[in-house]
Amino acid sequence: xxxxxxDAPVAAGNTRNxxxxxxxxxxWRNLRSMMRTPEVVVFSTIQPVIFVLMFRxxxxxxxxxxxVPYVDFLMPGxxxxxxxxxxxxxxxxxxxxxxxxIIERFRSLPMxxxxxxxxxxxxxxxxxxxVVAIMFLIxxxxxxxxxxxxxxxxxAVGLVLLFAxxxxxxxxxxxxxxRNAEAxxxxxxxxxxxxxxxxxxxxPLGSMPxxxxxxxxxxxxxxxxEAVRALVLGGPTMRPVLxxxxxxxxxxxxxxxxxxxxxxxx
Amino acid sequence: MEQQPAILVEDVHKRFGPVEAxxxxxxxxxxxxxxxxxxxxxxxxxxxxxxxxxxxxxxxxRATILGLDVARDxxxxxxxxxxxxxxxxxxxxxxxxxxxxxxxxxxxxxxxxILPRAAELLERFDLVDAAxxxxxxYSGGMRRRLDLAAALVHRPAVLFLDEPTTGLDxxxxxxxxxxIEGLVAEGASVLLTTQYLEEADRLADRIAVVDHGLVIAEGxxxxxxxxxxxxxxxxxxxxxxxxxxxxxxxxxxxxVEIGEDGKSIEVNVADSGRSLLRxxxxxxxxxxxxxxxxxREPSLDxxxxxxxxxxxxxxxxxTEPSKNMxxxxxxxx
Lengths: 266, 333
What we know:
- By secondary structure, chain A is mainly alpha-helical.
- Chain A contains eleven helices and no strands.
- In chain A, helix 7 packs across helix 8 and helix 7 (150-178) packs antiparallel against helix 10 (220-233).
- Chain A is elongated.
- In chain B, 36% of the residues lie in helices and 25% in strands.
- The longest helix of chain B has 16 residues, at 170-185.
- Chain B is elongated.
- The chains are: A mainly alpha, B alpha/beta.
- At the A-B interface, helix 1, helix 4 and helix 5 of A face helix 2 and helix 3 of B.
């Protein structure tokens, strides 16, 4: 970046960290845009609410989890499922921006190359804060209880949000690859199915066939769900949280690099 | 020091898989002038604009904006240029003012100047009343004006207008031409792409005709038109039987051809009024009563026909892969 002006006074508002400033500008734009299309936020909330009601009252009776009420087992899974499904919005948003041509304009502007992606994923993170807060409220309404303490609850929320951010970057790469909103939706679903349904989000791993357990036990959604469960239900937390964090940091490191590189070559 | 041209393009090539979108283009646009790139869909116009605005890198050759290399000095080129038209866009959910403010922030304008500049541009492009409405409520013409305003936020020295009026109704097109002429009068350096000879004629000082990734003719509008005659006298006959006779009768006025339907005759002429009168007299003396006789301006098709011997057929030209459309969109359009 060559936009650093050496003679500019380092006064308030005049420091030119373009990457941060540009990412904030794009985040602002995406949040504004989101507020004008509230249906996007509403729909990304309705789906997980349906999952909660379905698993709590329809399938829940048939699923036996030793030691805890099913609703307490279920909700950590729903939190993670919500943000992974919600990450599709990142892909759809970017695909739309390419379709309309606004990304062409951004690419002709003297702005940081990573800002469009950072601004997209940060705006989606803000959306997730709201969605996750709503999901916790719904959870409490259907009988979910935190067995530990407030600190652990906040740690759990933090973990879910960081996971949301990591997956936004995975879907950013998908969004840049497909170039139209419908294709972004379609391309996202297989990944969602493999990650969310073949995991410990809704059912205990022990109920799956052995070969599937091997995969389900060692994939990021399961590991994150287990860490969130440990934080809200009690039990040893250090190991599951570290494993989950390792996944998120790994995913962020790989997919931010791949997505920014892809954006540069569009 | 010798002044650098606004735009210099030397032997630029660009290939998308099997499609050679640009096959060695050379252009020079002096500062303060308007240059028109005229050609049908898929001729390579947008590819050229995307290379010059640093969105794409050329495979071969060199392009500079005011002496800055578009590949090696991309960051400084971006501070120098503005892009509007089909390859750029605004955010539908933001208001006009918010869109301009966003561009002001992304081009790192001094904070206190961003809103005044937005207000100034909204005023200038007659968008004050709509300034605080989301863009999705705008008409096509308003959108294009906002798009153009967005390209001007950071006062670029060189402006790229990629088919600025394609898809507009005639009235909005004329309005937008007025706006662009205003910019030109203030001394902007502009590269304009268009499919309309009339548009290039009205706005551009010099025109390059592009076909299949090559510049096939270059000159002022007058020079290009001189190559095919100023205007065309068009005669519709009642029956095809007389076509050959009429063709030979009118040959003295200029190059003459029989249309595909077999009963229309077109003559390229230099002097429309007098030639039309002559044509009518010749036909009258020969006792031929045509269905209609008219004079029309030459179109891009006529320019193409006279330069290349083929019509500017969209579907035969290689289509450049557009980032904005999917394959099925393109087939539909």
